[in-house]
Structures are given as C-alpha cells and as structure tokens.
Amino acid sequence: MKIICIGRNYVEHARELNNPLPQEPVFFMKPDTALIIRNRPFFYPDFTSDLHYEGELVLKICKNGRHIAEKFAHTYYDEIGFGIDFTARDLQQQQKQKGLPWEIAKAFDGAAPLGAFLPADSFEDVGNIPFRLTLNGETVQDGNSSLMIFSFDKIISYISRFVSLKMGDLIYTGTPAGVGPVKIGDTLEGYIAGQRLLRCMIK
Ligand code: MG
Predict the structure, then answer these.
(1) The domain spanning residue 36 has which CATH number?
(2) How far apart are CA 164 and CA 25, in angstroms?
(3) pLDDT mean over 68-92
(4) Taking residues 163-178, what's their average pLDDT?
(5) 86 alpha carbon to ligand 1 midpoint, in Å?
(6) Ligand 1 centre from 150 Cα, in Å?
(7) What pLDDT, in 10s, does the model give residues 33-66?
(8) Ligand 1 center to residue 152 CA distance, Å?
C-alpha cells in the first residue's frame, strides 16, 4: 500500500504558511514505514527541532483504479479516518527554499499516525464532515471537509491520472489552519464528528 498526501487543500492553512493557493491539487507520498497504528507513541526524531502536527481526514481506497472520473470517484473509498501528517517544518522550509523534494520533512519513520476509521456511508454528506485535533486536551485545529479547496472526488480523480490507486491505499486529504509544533510529553487526539479516533503521545 501507499500513502498519498494532499498539500495546501485549505485556504486558511495555505495562508498561514504563506503559500499561494493551488490551481490543481498538490500531492506527495509517504512510505508504509511512516505509519503508526493502534495509538502507539511517536518518538521525536533527532533531525528536527520544529516538528509540526497536521490533523487530516484520511480516505481508505477500496478498489483498484486509474483515470477515475470524478463522478465515479466516491465508489473508490469506503472508509474515512483521522491521521496526522507529521512535518519537520524546519527541514521542509529548507527544501522549499532550495526547490528540492519534501521527503526528509514528510516521509520519515512514524510521520503518519493513523487512527480508527468510520464507514463512508455513515456520513450524511462527506462534503460536510467536522473534525478537530486537540493538543493536551485543547482544540488546536477545527476543520470541516466543506472548507477543502479540492473535494475528495476531485482529489481521487486527479491523483489517478498519474498514479494508479490500489485497494488499501490511504489518502491524507490536507490539513486545516492551526498547525503548530509539538514537544516530548505532548498528547494529540483526533476527532471526527465528535468521536475520538486517534491518540498519539510524543515520546
Ligand atoms: Mg498535510
């Protein structure tokens, strides 16, 4: 399986990092070694001193496809969960300035904690899913899929023009405003529609 992540998919988040709004989805990948499951802890890596959380809705792909038309894209995922796109912001800034790829800032071991999933058909409208991330019990990100620049269907259709999707692949759909640093001892928790689906301790 592979992990595909969308960047700059929320207007306020693009603004908080002084990034231009994209005309088309921006995506990058993480390897499967980035996953942290079952609420296992994350160990703060030694190569960064500015590790940021990015709470995101995650789609789980349920069938193989390529060149997927937007109108059929909703049939290619059947579960929606909560994940964190951990980012070494200091390394990412360096890479961006040099015009180099982001992997060292985004794809490292443990950079993709993944929580529990909810069935996609349990949502009345996938274009209106509230989600939030708390840091030590305080809400730091409060998002809604209605605020995405590119919808789930648009994202799936766009990615599949370039990269075939396979059953079990994960799509991290971008983070809303409110990203920030974590330190050792912090606890992050992710909620969708009031249900806690992820807990991640920083060690
Ligand atoms: Mg992200």
Answers:
(1) 3.90.850.10
(2) 16
(3) 98
(4) 97
(5) 8
(6) 14
(7) 999 999 999 999 999 999 999 999 999 999 999 9
(8) 15
pLDDT at 120 over 90: yes
Q: Which domain holds residue 57?
A: 3-201
Going from the Cα of 6 to the center of ligand 1, the distance in angstroms, rounded, reads: 6
pLDDT of the residue at 123:
97
**Helical (H) or strand (E) element with 83:** strand 77-84
Q: What is the predicted pLDDT for the residue at 18?
A: 85
Q: What share of the chain is helix, strand, coil (3-state, %, to 5)?
A: 25, 40, 40
Provide the 10 A C-beta neighbour count for residue 99. Answer: 6
Domain count, the chain: 1
| Burial readout 124-159 (b: 16 or more C-beta within 10 A, e: otherwise) | eebeebebbbbbeeeebbebebeebbbbbbbbbbbb
